[in-house]
C-alpha cells in the first residue's frame, strides 16, 4: 500500500501542471505577424517589349559603350570667330608729282634749213608716274659740245595725265662727227625734275619713234 500511494500522487502532479515546472503568466499571447514569404529570384532574363507568342523574345543584353577621351586627332579645337571689322585705309590726299624721263636714243643729221651743219636729235619719253596731272611742262635738251641754240632744243607740253606718257624729239646744234654727251631737263608747274641723259649719241636706227605719234599723250606702257 505504501508503494501505490507515491505513484498516484506523482501522477496527479503531472496532470495538474501540464508538464511545466513553472507555469507561464496567464496573460494573452501577443500577436506575431506572419513571416513574409521569401522572394524567389530566378535567372530568367528581363524581356523588353511585348511580342507575339510565336515571336522570339527580345532579351536585353548589357553592352559596354566605350568612352573616348579627346586626343590631338579627334579633338575639335574652338576657333574664335569675331565680327569682321571693316578697316579703312585712307589714300594719300597729298599731291605727289613724279615724272620719269627716258632717253630712247639719238641720231645725227644735217640741218641746212636753220643754217646749221650737223645736229643731234634725241628722242625722249616722259611718263607721269605720280598721283597728280602735270601741267605746262617744258623739256630742254643740252649737249656738251653744243653750238648755236636750235629752235627745237625746247619742247612744251600742256598736260600729261596720271599714268600717261608722251614722246618728244629734241634737237641741238652739235660738233661735226663728235660723240656728244646729252642731258634732258624737264620743268613744270609742279616743279623741276632731275635730269636724265646719255654719255654719247649713236644712231638710233630702227628704234626711231613714229613721227605721227610725237607730242601726243598716250596711256603709259607697263
Brief digest:
This protein is mainly beta. The chain contains 1 helix and 8 strands. The strands form 2 sheets. Strands 1-2-5-8 form a 4-stranded antiparallel sheet, with no helix packed on it.
Number of E-state strands: 8
CATH architecture of the domain at 99-203: Sandwich
Question: In which order are the strands of the major sheet placed?
Answer: 1-2-5-8
Q: Residue-averaged pLDDT, rounded? A: 75
What is the beta-strand fraction? 25-35%
End-to-end Cα distance, whole Å, is 163 Å
- What's the helix-strand series? HEEEEEEEE
Total of DSSP H or I helical runs spanning 4+ residues: 1
Share of residues in helices? under 10%
| Residue windows where pLDDT falls under 50 for at least 5 positions | 19-23, 27-32, 71-79
Structural class given helices, strands, pairing?
A: mainly beta
Shape: elongated
Tell me the Rg in angstroms: 63 Å
CATH class of the domain at 99-203: Mainly Beta
Largest sheet: 4 strands, antiparallel
CATH H-tier superfamily of the domain at 99-203 = Immunoglobulins
What is the fold-level CATH name, i.e. the topology of the domain at 99-203? Immunoglobulin-like
Question: Helix and strand layout, with pairings?
Answer:
Layout: H1 4-17, E1 99-110, E2 118-128, E3 134-143, E4 154-160, E5 164-173, E6 182-188, E7 191-198, E8 218-219
Antiparallel strand pairs: 1-2, 2-5, 3-4, 3-6, 5-8, 6-7
Would you mind describing this structure in some detail?
This protein has 222 residues and is mostly beta strands. The chain has a domain at 99-203: Immunoglobulin-like (Sandwich). It has 1 helix and 8 strands, in the order αββββββββ. It has one helix at residues 4-17; strands at residues 99-110, 118-128, 134-143, 154-160, 164-173, 182-188, 191-198, 218-219. It has a 4-stranded antiparallel β-sheet with strand order 1-2-5-8, with no helix packed on it. Strands 4-3-6-7 form a 4-stranded antiparallel β-sheet, with no helix packed on it. The longest helix is centred in the N-terminal third of the chain and has 14 residues, at 4-17. It is elongated and about 145 Å long. The protein starts with a helix and ends with a strand. Residues 19-23, 27-32 and 71-79 have low confidence and may be disordered.
Amino acid at each position: 500500500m505504501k508503494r501505490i500511494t507515491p505513484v498516484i500522487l506523482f501522477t496527479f502532479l503531472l496532470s495538474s501542471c501540464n508538464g511545466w515546472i513553472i507555469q507561464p503568466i496567464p496573460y494573452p499571447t501577443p500577436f506575431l505577424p506572419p513571416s513574409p514569404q521569401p522572394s524567389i529570384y530566378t535567372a530568367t532574363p528581363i524581356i523588353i517589349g511585348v511580342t507575339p507568342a510565336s515571336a522570339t523574345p527580345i532579351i536585353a543584353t548589357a553592352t559596354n559603350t566605350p568612352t573616348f577621351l579627346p586626343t590631338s586627332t579627334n579633338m575639335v579645337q574652338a576657333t574664335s570667330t569675331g565680327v569682321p571689322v571693316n578697316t579703312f585705309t585712307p589714300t594719300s590726299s597729298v599731291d605727289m608729282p613724279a615724272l620719269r624721263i627716258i632717253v630712247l636714243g639719238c641720231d645725227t643729221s644735217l640741218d641746212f634749213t636753220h643754217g646749221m651743219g650737223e645736229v643731234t636729235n634725241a628722242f625722249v619719253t616722259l611718263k607721269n608716274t605720280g598721283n597728280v596731272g602735270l601741267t605746262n611742262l617744258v623739256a630742254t635738251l643740252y649737249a656738251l659740245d653744243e653750238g648755236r641754240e636750235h629752235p627745237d632744243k625746247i619742247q612744251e607740253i600742256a598736260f600729261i595725265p596720271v599714268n600717261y606718257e608722251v614722246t618728244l624729239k629734241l634737237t641741238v646744234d652739235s660738233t661735226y662727227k663728235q660723240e656728244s654727251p646729252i642731258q634732258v631737263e624737264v620743268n613744270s608747274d609742279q616743279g623741276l625734275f632731275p635730269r636724265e641723259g646719255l654719255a654719247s649719241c649713236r644712231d638710233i636706227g630702227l628704234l626711231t619713234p613714229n613721227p605721227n605719234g610725237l607730242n601726243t599723250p598716250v596711256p603709259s606702257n607697263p
